[in-house]
Amino acid sequence: MDLINKTNYVRFDEALNEEFNYSEDFSQEALDHYIQMCGITTRAPAYDILISLNVAEELEGTLKFTNAGILCEKRRSKAY
After folding, report:
1. Pseudo-torsion of CA 43, 39, 72, 44, nearest 10°?
2. What is the pLDDT at residue 44?
3. Are 77 and 36 in contact (CB under 8 A)?
4. HSE of 75 in the Cβ direction (CA atoms, 13 Å)?
5. Taking the CB of residue 8, how many other CB atoms lie within 10 A of it?
6. DSSP summary character for residue 8
7. How high is the mean pLDDT in each 10-residue block of the chain (80 residues)?
8. For the chain, what is the radius of gyration of the CA atoms?
9. DSSP string across 14-61
10. Residues with Cβ within 8 Å of residue 55, at least 6 apart in sequence
11. What does the alpha-carbon distance between residue 5 and residue 62 come to, in Å, rounded to a whole number?
């Protein structure tokens, strides 16, 4: 929020993507691959990992992805 408050600008990768649906579009396999490539070892649930990586946030009980977070999608060809 500091970035928004100081500049009135949100970087594209940090903006929420309203079209991405966690239950329909999310790929656990893509997240696992990313975690492995980064050398991260954790047993935390995907929900918590995504929030920790700042690629998603919980709003009104729903997980909302940022534009960067949609890299964990099932179908890469789907346009957002």
Report:
1. 10
2. 96
3. no
4. 8
5. 7
6. S
7. 59 87 88 92 94 92 89 60
8. 13
9. GSB-TT--HHHHB-HHHHHHHHHHHT------HHHHHHHTTSEEEETT
10. 65, 66, 68, 69, 71, 72
11. 24
| Chain centre distance of CA 80 | 14
73 close to 21: Cβ distance less than 8 angstroms = no
Q: Give the model's pLDDT for residue 68.
A: 87
| Neighbouring C-alpha atoms within 13 Å toward the C-beta of 1 | 1
> How far is 46 from 20, CA to CA, in rounded Å?
16
> Distance between CA 42 and CA 40 in Å, rounded?
6
Structure tokens at 3: 């970035």
